[in-house]
Write a structure and sequence with these properties.
The protein is mainly β and 421 residues long. Helices cover 12% and strands 55% of the residues. The strands form two sheets. The chain has a 22-stranded mixed sheet that branches. Strands 5-6 form a two-stranded antiparallel ribbon.
């Protein structure tokens, strides 16, 4: 049997150089020439009858997304060529709700093979994701203070974050039911390595119209798991990485492909439906859902004795926003990915596609829309290009190419080539 090493997936959106919302394999979704496409679109039957991906030679996925501001908008060049941080420009660029996203995934091993109308695949991968969602008014409040909000209430109930490192053991199955219908399923055993995440049950700040003090209602919890091994007292060992985190979870993907006729086909996929249950080395830091009041700083006392005043402020904040520590197990949901795709076959070698994608994170949806073009350049080379609208920005041009030479196939895919170059 001929072995094909599918060697390289390098999806790179260079940090800070472009704005982007969170997107995942938008260009790759309809590239059936890449065997690992079944990790994104499990109802697609890859062209290869058999493939294997090995450590180092297997796929790597990197993503950075920031829909609030770019590096250029954060820094401004002054007349004397010095660079300074322009907070006012950043505030003007921010939206009512912003999201910072990072993702990393690497396959330790992956393989797949065809058997009649069926296609089986499996992979062991390490994955890291960061989702940080915050209102633009929070950044403005921190930079400019509460002077603009006298008598007003700021509601930060949509503030939330999740940083998770976990290992995925996935087993996939696809079957062509008939000439029109193909289904795909992937089951995943999850091993949570580390986590720090939030639960927001309400967070508001009201500026008193009389004395300008801050009234706050807060019910905010920060959960952590398996972080103590990173401290100097405990230390991180390679055995910790090999043995895993021992926080177990389950997830699944489901996908359906329907070929309406020889030209049109429609596809939908829902990926990462599942959760991780965290019970190892757990810490919870919570503020009770109570009303708090902070009267601010007496300017006269600050000028005469700034050191003591600052310490008094710190002590006052500690006494005002009281947190409770506990060791309760908790659960986090994976950010679920939803894809809706249509594809029109122009001829036997080329097609055009439209893809609607959304990421569900803490009851919110991060949307994107992609138009794509796919072309088979002979038997050994596949090419794809895409144009995406992400968070109302239409400046994302994607590119994908896969080439097979002997037993080796290399492929490079990006959803934003402008960010790479």
């Amino acid at each position: 049997m001929r072995i094909k090493h599918y060697a390289l997936l390098f999806i790179l959106q260079l940090m800070y150089l472009s704005k982007a919302n969170a997107q995942t394999e938008l260009t790759m979704y309809n590239m059936s020439g890449i065997a690992q496409v079944n990790q994104v679109n499990s109802s697609t039957l890859p062209k290869a009858s058999f493939y294997i991906g090995l450590p180092v030679l297997s796929s790597i996925h990197l993503l950075y997304g920031n829909n609030a501001f770019s590096y250029r908008e954060l820094h401004t060049l002054s007349n004397d060529d010095s660079v300074f941080i322009d907070f006012n420009n950043v505030i003007n660029k921010m939206k009512s709700l912003n999201c910072l996203t990072m993702q990393f995934k690497t396959d330790f091993i992956s393989f797949g093979f065809r058997s009649g109308r069926n296609y089986f695949n499996a992979n062991i991968s390490d994955r890291i994701h960061l989702y940080f969602r915050y209102p633009g008014s929070l950044f403005q409040f921190l930079v400019e203070g509460n002077g603009k909000y006298i008598g007003q209430t700021l509601d930060f109930k949509k503030l939330g974050f999740d940083l998770t490192h976990f290992r995925e053991y996935a087993f996939g199955f696809s079957r062509s039911i008939n000439d029109k219908l193909t289904i795909g399923l992937r089951l995943k055993l999850l091993d949570g390595m580390e986590n720090i995440s939030s639960v927001n049950n309400g967070l508001t700040f009201t500026t008193d119209a009389i004395d300008y003090g801050l009234h706050s209602t807060t019910g905010f919890t920060i959960n952590t798991s398996s972080l103590s091994k990173w401290s100097n007292n405990v230390g991180y060992h390679i055995d910790d990485f090999i043995s895993g985190g021992q926080n177990h979870g389950f997830a699944g993907d489901i996908s359906v492909l329907y070929k309406y006729n020889s030209k049109w086909e429609f596809n939908t996929s829902i990926n990462d439906i599942g959760s991780i249950f965290w019970n190892k080395d757990v810490r919870n830091y919570s503020t009770n859902a109570n009303n708090y009041y902070f009267g601010g700083v007496d300017l006269k006392h600050f000028i005469s004795d700034s050191t003591n005043t600052i310490q008094n402020v710190i002590d006052s904040l500690k006494n005002t926003f009281v947190s409770a520590e506990s060791v309760n197990a908790y659960k986090t949901n994976l950010p679920t990915q939803i894809y809706l795709s249509s594809r029109y076959n122009l001829n036997g070698k080329s097609s055009v596609s439209a893809l609607l994608h959304g990421t569900i994170f803490q009851k919110g949806v991060l949307p994107s829309f992609t138009l794509g073009y796919q072309l088979a350049l002979g038997k050994n080379v596949d090419f794809s290009t895409s144009w995406s609208i992400i968070n109302n920005r239409a400046d994302h041009l994607g590119l994908g190419i896969s080439a097979k030479t002997g037993p080796l196939q290399l492929y490079l895919v990006t959803d934003n080539i402008l960010g790479v170059i």
